[in-house]
Design goal:
The complex is a heterodimer of chains A (135) and B (95).
Chain A: E1 2-7, H1 12-26, H2 35-51, E2 58-66, E3 69-77, H3 104-112, E4 115-121, E5 124-132
Antiparallel strand pairs in A: 1-2, 2-3, 3-5, 4-5
Chain B: E1 3-7, E2 12-19, H1 24-30, E3 38-41, E4 45-48, H2 50-65, E5 70-73, H3 77-85, E6 93-94
Parallel strand pairs in B: 2-3, 2-4, 3-5, 5-6
Antiparallel strand pairs in B: 1-2
Classes of the chains: A alpha+beta (135), B alpha/beta (95).
């Protein structure tokens, strides 16, 4: 796995996207495969910025390949647990006026990734997704 | 790549580039002028996340409340998939 650290600032998002795209390019993986990892980072990072403000001022992104699967981890330091795998899905059945704000980003992560796991140990929070490469 | 908002004549707005969380505030500001029925042409939109969906939903609610309509046309497959997973294909007018 290759890791980079970023400041907890929305301006870091573009650099995270570039990191993923560069990794895929060096492995000769079609660029269309960046869509889901980009969206995962977009959602997890903005969620972290909104709701976990007391942690370390950097986060980490780790990316690697496990066979034909992209493995992507988003890591926060010095935070309380936030396990997205346990968050209920939003109710999408009603009219849009009745929809509660929030929850959609995490829901999209869980729907678009093939697998999602979570680990919290000693203040280090790691959300890990896998996504099969499409060639 | 950033998000570009092009407001055209005749109620058509082009969104080009990437509608990610870092672009949402600017997009909201640029689209505050949309007050009547609108067609968003997403031919050039490569990417959208929940932040972008949220801005479009805000606009839909604002227009719908005044009796106006909002259409989304020419969605790329990945973008259409995000709207689909979010359950918005049945609510918004997507062509």
């Amino acid at each position: 796995m290759t890791e980079r650290r970023y400041r907890r600032d929305i301006a870091s998002l573009q650099a995270m996207f570039e990191f993923v795209s560069e990794f895929l390019a060096t492995r000769e993986i079609p660029s269309s495969n960046a869509f889901v990892p980009h969206l995962v980072l977009d959602e997890l990072f903005t969620n972290a910025l909104k709701y976990r403000t007391g942690g370390d001022d950097t986060v980490a992104v780790r990316i690697g390949l496990d066979g034909e699967n992209i493995v992507l981890s988003f890591v926060e330091f010095g935070v309380e647990p936030f396990d997205i795998t346990g968050i209920p899905d939003p109710d999408l059945s009603g009219p849009i006026e009745e929809r509660q704000a929030g929850g959609m980003g995490i829901f999209l992560v869980k729907r678009l990734a093939d697998h999602v796991t979570y680990e919290h140990r000693d203040g280090v929070s790691t959300t890990r997704i896998t996504k099969r490469v499409e060639r | 790549m950033m998000l570009e908002v092009r407001i055209m004549e005749g109620g058509r707005v082009h969104l080009l580039g990437r509608f990610d969380a870092s672009q949402a505030a600017g997009a909201r500001q640029a689209l505050a002028a949309v007050e009547e029925s609108v067609t968003f042409d997403l031919t050039g939109l490569e990417y959208i996340s929940s932040a972008g969906l949220g801005v479009l939903i805000e606009i839909y609610k604002r227009l719908h409340g005044k009796g106006h309509t909002m259409r989304l046309v020419n969605l790329r497959p990945n973008v259409r998939a995000v709207f689909g997973f979010a359950g918005l294909e049945k609510i918004l007018s997507i062509e």
